[in-house]
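Incident review: delayed structure delivery

Summary: a single-chain prediction request sat in the queue longer than the usual turnaround. Root cause was a stuck worker, restarted by the on-call engineer. No data loss occurred. The affected request and its eventual output are reproduced below so the record is complete for anyone auditing the incident later.

Affected input:
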Amino acid sequence: MDVDEALRTRRSVRAFLPDPVPETTVRRILELAARTPSGSNTQPWRVHVLTGASRQALSDAVHAFRNANPGVDHRQYEYYPVHWREPYLARRRKVGWDLYALLGIARGETDKAFRQHGRNFDFFGAPVGMIFTIDGALERGSWIDYGMFLQSVMLAARGFGLHTCPQAAWIYFHDIVRRVLGLPDGEMVVCGMCLGFEDPAAPANRLETERAAVDDFATFTT
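Output delivered after worker restart:
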């Protein structure tokens, strides 16, 4: 598909089919994404591709800790602001409640919400899970580069008819990820990502997120 279509159809899919994705396809996606620019060509990304038993081992470890310690996390960095303000708070609330409405989760149903959030750690059923890490000694510029790399992965996946879901949820259990994957000291978990074929029958995949108009965030001067 062309770039316009890849950008237009990229979205966070939260239910995948079990159909396997060939390793050659995953490798090609990462080869394409590796063309992402980075300051002084530092290429700060490191990717851990998990399938089969390795994917299940990580899922099991996080579920075991999470079920025994509900509400406890050991985040290594703050992904979201500590103090929310508009328009970000309204956007966050809307996408959350829109998703829960599709899933039949009402306000106050914390058990259902807990279980739905837990599906992150099954990579939403995707056959391929990826954990992205970075050398903790690198600064903000490398994190900006990393964001471009993640987008490149997601757009390259669309070229193969695949979908993705980037997941900040894994950072809250980075110590478990570190132990299971054997990450070296100083390595930070940036996020996770699901990769696979969308389940078109899943209610969660009917979510359509809104985007601000260009004039809401761009200023044109001459």
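Verification: The longest strand covers residues 187-196.
Action items: add queue-age alerting; document worker restart procedure.
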